[in-house]
Amino acid sequence: MSYDARVADELRADHEEKGKKLRGRFFRPAAFLIIAVAATAFCGCNRAGTQTGNNNNAPASSPSPRKPLTEFERDLEYVRTGQFTYIYLISRADGSPLNNDDIAYLKQNAPPQTNQWVLTDEKRRVIAGTNFEFTPENLDALRKRFVVEDYSGK
User: Fold this and answer.
1) Which pTM does this prediction carry?
2) Residue 83 in contact with residue 115, Cβ under 8 Å?
């Protein structure tokens, strides 16, 4: 082999070795980056499908429209979100609206710790929210004049 051929082979070998080192420096992080991006994209698509409630097994149907809540249902939900232990619904037996005397009688015969009173259903009912149980005496006094329903667990 001639001197020129030998030098050319050494240069080529040196060049290939440097190329391998350079590829190792750049291609390993690039491969890691590609894998990380692919994993993120896959997880992101899966998570987005779960958040929006997409289910490939579910039949394609539009959700049924929700019936608007009545005044009473809205007020009851409002009291429930107060996280009271006891919720009582109180109304007159004849179904007429509660007057000022009725409200005064309610407050006089209910535990003083009753936190919330919500007049609802065109003043025909009142929802009481409290963390203190109405005693049998309280309930007896209220039932002399009103219909009292326990909505605590409902």
Assistant:
1) 0.56
2) no
Residue 47 to residue 127: CA distance in whole angstroms? 42
CB-CB neighbours of 72 under 10 Å: 16
pLDDT tens, position by position, 16-46: 666 665 555 555 566 556 666 665 555 555 4
Whether residue 87 contacts residue 127, with contact meaning beta carbons closer than 8 Å, is answered with yes
> Could you tell me whether strands 116-120 and 86-92 are parallel, antiparallel, or unpaired per DSSP bridges?
unpaired
Q: Are 116 and 84 in contact (CB under 8 A)?
A: yes
* Distance from C-alpha of 130 to C-alpha of 86, rounded to nearest angstrom: 5
User: If you write DSSP's letter for every residue of the chain in order, what string do you get?
Assistant: --HHHHHHHHHHHHHHHHHHHHHHHHHHHHHHHHHHHHHHHHHHHHHHHHHTT--TTS---PPPPPPPPPHHHHHHHHHHTTT-SEEEEEEETT-PPP-HHHHHHHHHHS-TT--EEEEETTTTEEEEEESSPPPHHHHHHHHTTEEEEE-TT-
CB 117, CB 75: distance < 8 Å: no
β-pairing, 125-130 with 116-120? Answer: antiparallel
